[in-house]
Amino acid sequence: MGTLSYTVTMSLDGYIADTKGDFQWATPSPEIFDVHLQRMSEVSTEIMGRKTYELMQFWDTHPDSDQATPAEKVFGRLWQHINKIVVSSTLSPADMVADDDELVPHLDVERIRRIGQDADGVVEIFGPTTAADAIRAGLIERFEFFIVPIIIGGGLKALPDGVKLDLELVKQRIFDNGTVYLQYKYP
């Protein structure tokens, strides 16, 4: 049985992107990227929406790019071996980069629960819109927050409204650039 996880990089005021959709302020330092490599080595399945899938296609198509750092090349190879489930009503099967990428128009909480039960490793839900229903249903067992020391004043919220969960702190780390990593478990 896998672990359902929600990982997000967010501003100090709780947003993953500003009102224009920009999230360049969240680009990880090499120190933080190393933590992402460690995390991704545990991930067996990634659930994401269309925007995230389109953003991450680079890692499926250019994992060994000449412009990539050695760490980015490792990430690309890890990414290629992860099962990907893409939640989108606008993409078509022809838009999928890899033959085994799964496209679903909607993902209900029961299906998310089954994916978690059937997985061998961590099932990471990437993106607040895709994760919202699973968070509301109390399905997420692990929350990982990278909190960047910036206040952006609005945009796409990292967490849905109307949810109260009592979490237990499992790990914490402060990086040289002031970013704080917090890992919580629920329940």
UniProtKB/TrEMBL annotation:
<dbReference type="GO" id="GO:0008703">
    <property type="term" value="F:5-amino-6-(5-phosphoribosylamino)uracil reductase activity"/>
</dbReference>
<dbReference type="InterPro" id="IPR002734">
    <property type="entry name" value="RibDG_C"/>
</dbReference>
<dbReference type="InterPro" id="IPR050765">
    <property type="entry name" value="Riboflavin_Biosynth_HTPR"/>
</dbReference>
<protein>
    <submittedName>
        <fullName>Dihydrofolate reductase family protein</fullName>
    </submittedName>
</protein>
<dbReference type="GO" id="GO:0009231">
    <property type="term" value="P:riboflavin biosynthetic process"/>
</dbReference>
<dbReference type="InterPro" id="IPR024072">
    <property type="entry name" value="DHFR-like_dom_sf"/>
</dbReference>
<dbReference type="Pfam" id="PF01872">
    <property type="entry name" value="RibD_C"/>
</dbReference>
<feature type="domain" description="Bacterial bifunctional deaminase-reductase C-terminal">
    <location>
        <begin position="5"/>
        <end position="180"/>
    </location>
</feature>
